[in-house]
Predict the structure.
Amino acid sequence: MKNALYLQSGGPTAVINSSLYGVIKAYVNNTDKIGHLYGSLYGIEGVLKDNLVEIEPDLSKYDELKYMSGAILGSARLKLGLPEDDDRYVKIHEIAKKYDIGYILVNGGNDSMDTANKLNKFFAELKEDIVVMGIPKTIDNDLILTDHTPGFGSAVKFVTKSIMEIGLDINSYRKGRATIVEIMGRDAGWLAGATALGKLYNLGPDLIYLPEIPFDRKKFLDDVERVFKEKGHVLICASEALKDTNGEYVSVEDKLDSFGHKQLGSVSKYLEILINSILNINTRTIELSLLQRAGAHLASKIDRQEAIDVGEKALEYALQKRVGMVSIIRDSNNPYHSHYDLVPLASVANAVKTMPLEYVNKSGNGMTQEFIEYVYPFIDGDDIGIHSSDIFLSQDKYAKVNK
Amino acid sequence: MKNALYLQSGGPTAVINSSLYGVIKAYVNNTDKIGHLYGSLYGIEGVLKDNLVEIEPDLSKYDELKYMSGAILGSARLKLGLPEDDDRYVKIHEIAKKYDIGYILVNGGNDSMDTANKLNKFFAELKEDIVVMGIPKTIDNDLILTDHTPGFGSAVKFVTKSIMEIGLDINSYRKGRATIVEIMGRDAGWLAGATALGKLYNLGPDLIYLPEIPFDRKKFLDDVERVFKEKGHVLICASEALKDTNGEYVSVEDKLDSFGHKQLGSVSKYLEILINSILNINTRTIELSLLQRAGAHLASKIDRQEAIDVGEKALEYALQKRVGMVSIIRDSNNPYHSHYDLVPLASVANAVKTMPLEYVNKSGNGMTQEFIEYVYPFIDGDDIGIHSSDIFLSQDKYAKVNK
């Protein structure tokens, strides 16, 4: 019997450990076909340094994985070159032989799928009986050939809840500020867009800016000024990766005098200075930072289950000697239902799924109903728990008068 | 029958609306003694502008208040001067007469207690039959004569959970960065200190810095360097209000060139630049900002119940013509039990409760067991849900070697 090797790659999500749980589940169900299940510590590093741990065929020992953020085995960025240029193939091959590995499962984003693809070719040329499977994972939701990626749904729920609670705080004052919340998403605005879900509860951001829509400074300032005049405060969600009409990232280079140290400012810092200096509106910046990918306590139930499923499916497909990335196909929204399939690693590896423009409103500062329907299932319906936020303030007779 | 008036003041907490719920509860139980219950919109502004809402004697309509962050009636900072210098007394008196108010309940921090105290004296001199009660509220936990303040416990739970999830993310990489998390607390380090709870799960901050301990730049850099060398990453929690040995706030003035706009940097930004430039360690800053006072989805069960109770007690005391601030007295930790009492408004108004030095460790960069026991009840025991975070990485044979 061959053994299996699992490794985590890239940035953690709230549910990457749920995928590991799913792999263990498949292992436990197939101990007649798989000898041992190994985990590589710190991603590919564990393979290169022969630093593996053995995972026991006892699911009850690993229940916590479903509720734990971070990458429990440790992670590392992983992008292999071509076999002729990259010494690491030799070491990977050596370890695969030493541990009699027949199945390698790489849990990551598109770099990981690229690596899985290259390893499959490498082993095939050597006529080694080893298959390499991809398990998708990214809060950015930017992999093609899958309806969405495990990790995205939980990040959606976290940012939506956070935006709504920030909204309730902001609504507590008549005269407020501009508040900018910066949301992760290096190449695509899926997660920033998802904050629009708060609008279902009258607590969404007033304005949303995505990397898919070239940033127009004048239009941005007009938007902000208009909302601020109307409401006395404005809540803005901006993707960390806004680009201007030349395709350059929008950011500001801070020159910090105390130590003569320079560093690249964030998008939100740029927008803050813009609003502050041009519109003279007091502005606050909130960067959700690691929290949005680490918020396992707010993990989406659908996302967690799918993360488990793709891990389980990956090992099952591998046992059938099939290779590819496990992909999620959505069947229906209400009730939500999905199933799984295999898609070619090579296709996923070299593409980024950006937001279709029909998901963005005509003003380029908010989302369409179609997009809301796409992300709504991930917040687990009423579970979000904030409903009629305006039970008192809707009676405010000065709300309109005191503009 | 006299009527009652309730108003919210200062920064929101996750449970200030729970205190309103408690007030409504007492109202519903005493409709034979109280005519109407009014809420003032946007704190004192609603009184000054005759902008009140009537709250119905039907508790079932307001259940959501227990789960909703923000100040649902709207808030405003409130600090009255002396009656002879401050026109607002006249208007407050006029509104109190117009609505036949016998009981005023002010839900806020020490400025609100000062105001409640002044109003009591003012009404007493006029021989008006009006009592003004204080309902405590602040995430800063800096009011005296109460074991702790409603709002603090929920903020403790939020920051602890956040720090632990950030910790799990950081642990995912062998070679990491310095991560600085800035925690609210304008005059006292209670909340920043509470992040030490994460250590119970092996996920706390490595270093904690509080305003009560004068900031020593050299010692700070030594601490950071030592931990970083040992672990490959370092997690630092810093109070927003760190002060140097001269009692000056520690911060950096950013000079931002793009718009020639200047603004005061945060403590975390200061520490980031310090670590970056002196130790040459890649550094990330996370400001929890409004989230730490708005995280009602992680509200502490004990805190929520106590917030309800102090609201309820306040109206009950008022009906007995007793005045003061409702205070919480802790009876025991395990099981947790507390009861309530009245304390003089004047005493609370003019004092700040900073952290006793016996709660801080000898190195001034962490907390003692005694403090952990003080804050532990607020995280609702095992509810926090992260346990053996090192199930795999504890087997890492390179952990010590690769220093």
About this structure: Chain B has two domains: 3-150+298-349, 153-295+356-395. Confidence is low (pLDDT under 50) at residues 254-264 of chain B.
